[in-house]
Design a protein that fits this description.
Two copies of one chain form a homodimer. Chain A is mainly α and 258 residues long. Chain A has helices at residues 16-30, 42-49, 53-65, 86-96, 104-122, 128-139, 148-168, 172-187, 189-196, 200-219, 222-250, and strands at residues 69-72, 78-81. Chain A has a two-stranded antiparallel ribbon with strand order 1-2. At the A-B interface, helix 1, helix 3, helix 4, helix 5 and helix 8 of A face helix 1, helix 3, helix 4, helix 5 and helix 8 of B.
Chain lengths: 258, 258
DNA sequence: AGATATTTGTTCGTATGTATT
DNA sequence: TAATACATACGAACAAATATC
């Protein structure tokens, strides 16, 4: 009686704006539109789909939220196909793991496989500019932090170093997945708590790993780079999982609902 | 001259609905809302954000497009927080690689690392029901195809087998990434052409691999499973890349624009 | 079974802002 | 500077869906 509230309709028939979004995507595929190309004017879309201005706008808004469309005002303005940028893609992806946060070990299981391979492919491929960029990131934590704020920034900068490496990877799938895993880590609520804990040794050991890594990358020694990164990942995982366990015993359970 | 002090508005100041979407997400985080929980009514949101109904609805529409919100009409209805399902997440992610299609080799570089590990973790963990599901998938291509349609279906079923394995993986991050790579392959335009080509040996060899794989999984022999999957991946990559090269020479360039 | 209240869904018309020409 | 073409936002009204009495 009190529990038949379950929606009987498995597929709540897609709303109109959602359907129009789909049709617009089809349009892009069929006409082979490329980033920068213009979509029909809003008025034309209204006519074509026999929908009101607001409905069309809602459909366009959804595509904008997905990063597939950008709009400009003024004459010659309109809605334009756009390549989704990586940040947007990661943000959307992050939503999926929002309500089912993975374990630290789950993430590191992948990082241990992928990041060593990533740096191996990078060996001997980096330009002077790339090295400068990496060094600039490292410099943010080549010294002891002066206060808690700087400490936290250093922890994030450490992840940034990995992010730059991922960005430089010519295999964009590999680079993207690595970046995604780092992003996942960044946003994991348990990690936010872990990152708040001071940890001097970790900074120093991380710094050491990365200096060594840059050195062998410069030499073009892929195998050495692979090994350094793997060891680094193992050390990081061990530390993070220890923190995870510790936090788990500290707060037996924190629920935001009474 | 060409470098005026004003940063040329890198970010075309986010539109209002987009900002409201962000704020709604923050609301979900702050209040610790879970899937199934209700958002404020549209009227309340209009008051709270001092925005018109259309604007609020556009913001909600964006969240719906991201699979984060579902809505129901009627009394007791409203907009509800929802967990993004995997399919939706993959679809959104696929948009990112839509305009920068990776090479076959890029994808297989990851599959060769991840899928062997995936089946290794599955060894000895599968239930009778799991095996039945996997066997049912295999059965779709345990015989020679009668016609082109069945041939194509068999090629997709082969990917489905891998998808089921990914789904069964307790490490959801690993499972998701593997599923994503398969999805990427499915949607790659070059793959669609490759899959159209008849290839009797590939079906047979794939079938053989998978029967053997199920056998060692049943024995709980993770190492054997890892090796079988790795060999399978290498063989598949070799075949796909050969096709890729062949197609590249066939059509020097096909552009959809005159 | 039917009327009604509640809440989202769709549309129209209009006013405003902004960039190009 | 002014005109123009376009997106952006608002408000009011009406339609559809659905739970409750």
């Amino acid at each position: 009686m009190n529990d038949p509230t379950v929606p009987p309709a498995k597929t709540p028939p897609a709303r109109r704006p959602a359907r129009i979004s789909e049709q617009l995507k089809d349009l892009i595929v069929e006409q082979g539109l490329q980033p920068g190309d213009r979509l029909p004017r809003e008025q034309e879309l209204m006519d074509q789909f026999k929908a009101s201005k607001n409905t069309v706008r809602e459909a366009l808004g959804a595509l904008q939220a997905q990063g597939l469309v950008r709009s400009r005002t003024g004459p010659g303005g309109g809605n334009f196909v756009s390549a989704q940028d990586e940040d947007r893609a990661m943000e959307l992806l992050g939503n999926y793991f929002f309500f089912q946060q993975p374990r630290i070990g789950d993430i590191y299981a992948l990082r241990k496989m992928l990041e060593p391979e990533l740096v191996a492919t990078l060996a001997g491929q980096l330009t002077e500019a790339d090295f400068q960029r990496l060094n600039a990131t490292i410099r943010l934590y080549d010294h002891k932090p002066q206060n808690k704020v700087e400490e936290y920034r250093q922890r994030l900068a450490e992840l940034d170093f990995h992010a730059v490496l991922a960005e430089l990877c010519p295999n964009r799938v590999l680079g993207f997945v690595c970046g995604f895993l780092q992003n996942l880590l960044r946003n994991l609520s348990i990690c936010k708590r872990i990152y708040d804990k001071p940890n001097p040794e970790l900074r120093e050991s991380g710094f050491h790993y990365q200096v060594k890594l840059l050195s062998v990358l410069n030499d073009g020694d892929g195998e050495a780079a692979r090994k350094i990164m793997f060891d680094h990942m193992c050390a990081a995982q061990e530390y993070m999982e220890a923190c995870e366990a510790e936090l788990a015993t500290d707060f037996l359970r924190i629920s935001s609902r009474g």
